[in-house]
Amino acid sequence: MNIYVYDGNFDSLISLCAELIASKITPENIMTEDKSHGYLFDKIYLSFNQNLYDRLNSRLNQISKTAYAHICAAFLSETEGMEIKIFNYIQTVLRLSLEKNISQQKIDDYLENFADSSIRELNQLSKKVYIERHRFLGLIRFSELSDKTLYAQFEPDHNISLLLAPHFKQRLPKDNWIIHDIARGIGAVYDKEKNDYILCGLENTAGIIYSEEENAFRQIWQRYWKEIAIPERKNPKCQLNFMPKRYWKHLTETENLNR
Amino acid sequence: MNSDFSALNDKLSILGMSAKYDASCSSSGSSRKNPGGSGNAVAAGICHSWGEDGRCISLLKVLQTNICSFDCAYCINRKSNDIPRAVFSPAELADLTMQFYKRNYIEGLFLSSAVLKNSDYSMELMLKTVSLLRNVHRFGGYIHLKVMPGADPLLIKRAGFLVDRISANIELPTGESLSLLAPDKKPDKLIGSIKDISSNIRESVDEYRFKRSVTYAPGGQSTQMIIGATPETDKTILNLTESLYKKLSLKRVYYSAYVPVTESSLLPAITKPPLLREHRLYQADWLLRFYGFKAHEILNDEYPNLDMRIDPKTAWAMRNYHLFPVEISTASYEEILRIPGIGVQSAQRIIKARRFSKLTFEDLKKIGVVMKRAKYFLSCSGKMMNSNFSHDLILAEAGGLYSEIKISELREGQLPLFREQSIPPIEIAQEI
């Protein structure tokens, strides 16, 4: 048994993968400290190595920007076992790039070969994250606060705030807005003066004061939402399929229906 | 809520109710940049919510007014119908759209209207709303505008440069049905508008090649027809659909299962909208758009209607079993695409993956092929997966539900799996 433990940062994971690959070690598993409590022995800690990190990081970017984006998305999935899938994938990517006379086209093609389990598993993770991101492009609900800031709370399965923020920066550059992942206690905070956002820790606050008009528009939207359905076509199963109940808590239109 | 808001609330309720039978809510096909105000469009489109009928809510779907001078038998807004009526002022509707948009309730506006006074008058009102949004609010979000029947071609031209998608409803599959149910609408005028739009789009694309200019309706043109209010066969509907795509380059054709909103001796006495038929038509529409099928392959004089029990691709494959099994390691993309249980994504993955190794049934499954369906229609390296097919197994797989099929429809001996005269049913929600 050899279980490698890291601090949960992306950079540390990349550094760790680089070190394992350089020393030709195949780990049993890779996990964060808090998840490794069940294992008393065989835990190995490697400290962050800036040099190795830089080399692998730029190497991966050089081989394929798409592959790098998939790795980042898989990391943001925060699902159990994603670290070892990332390790396997990086190994595949590196091995591929070292093949004799291999063309960029062939590398790109192989990275879409779903018969290879390391590629399939990583792509599946990254797809999950991107599907949830796409869902929340639509399901984020802003409320207007008394200072006109647009404020949204949400609880995504994956850590997608960083993937959502650029979309809203393009879309709503003239408003101050906050998307607040209350499950993780983090948020993207956009400042219209600076035309930029930061990702930071955000505490959950009880004292939210809405703008005067906010309640009226909520009610108008709720009624419209309810009445736009055609009664003869009623199909709640289909509705839940697209919009699972776990999201309802933070949707304006369902705030009173959620139980 | 103060009285202004409560009046607005009632008005939106009236004009939303009157708009809801329009099928489309798509916000795709346009990637308009933010013009320096609020809003942009995303090519893939974004759904924001889903109503209790399971339909996606992407755009604020609403009428400028539901006061109508026409009396179309199938329409909730016909002038002889006793319902509350209202009109949005352009400023009012533009403001409401912005309020909803910045809260991320919607992706934009789908604006249609009843015929107030005449087509051109209502069209001008709608154009005012859209122009306020674009030029005063500097709104870059998605706008879908419905053209009024027989509207002035110049108005149609102006509209297209302001919006992302433009549509004119064809309403019913044939001119005869239209004359019967919608005497105020002239079939040649409806088709005329569709043709005008399609040539406007073509011109704008041509101009774009030479110099940078504003694109006319970057999200393309769509149309809608009501299914089940008139006696046309699916073959007629699908042939019409095909020519709309091919000859007039439409982006989408929508079908709307007829919902009995009114009683009329001209209309069929049904209690439920023909949703399964609508679903099958959409499946066939996908075969035309993404799977390289021709309408005459799916339906012909011998089979003028879609089989309600199975999806049209499986139905086609069963009638053409002499073309199967398709060999995965050598078949072309087009052939693989025609295997039931294989979609566009799986077909593309197969083409990529088979260059690196011989694919097994297990690989296919992991790639995303629905083997339950596909196994009767493909082979891997010359072998078929299923040698000990069992009728009971199919039943178990299908959850105990199955339909009967007439064996005479199949040529003897071609389809061993269906010898028991039964087929696995296809879940209604399943994609082709």
Polypeptide structure, described:
The complex is a heterodimer of chains A (259) and B (432). Chain A is α/β, with parallel strands linked by helices. Chain A has 3 domains: 3-131, no CATH class; 140-211, no CATH class; 213-259, no CATH class. Chain A is built from 9 helices and 8 strands. In chain A, the strands form 2 sheets. In chain A, strands 4-5-6-7-8 form a 5-stranded mixed β-sheet, with helices on one face. Chain A has a 3-stranded parallel β-sheet with strand order 2-1-3, covered by helices on one side. Chain A is elongated and about 65 Å long. The relative contact order of chain A is 0.08. The mean pLDDT of chain A is 94. Residues 388-432 of chain B have low confidence and may be disordered. In chain B, helix 7 links the parallel strand 7 and strand 8 (252-257). The two termini of chain B are 47 Å apart. Chain B has 2 domains: 3-226, TIM Barrel (Alpha-Beta Barrel), CATH 3.20.20; 312-423, no CATH class. Chain B contains 15 helices and 13 strands. Chain B has a 6-stranded parallel β-sheet. A 3-stranded mixed β-sheet of chain B has the order 9-10-11, with no helix packed on it. A two-stranded antiparallel sheet of chain B has the order 1-2. In chain B, helix 4 (153-160) crosses helix 6 and helix 7 (234-248) packs parallel to helix 8 (275-290). At the A-B interface, helix 6, strand 4, helix 7, helix 8 and helix 9 of A face helix 1, strand 1, strand 2, helix 2 and helix 12 of B.
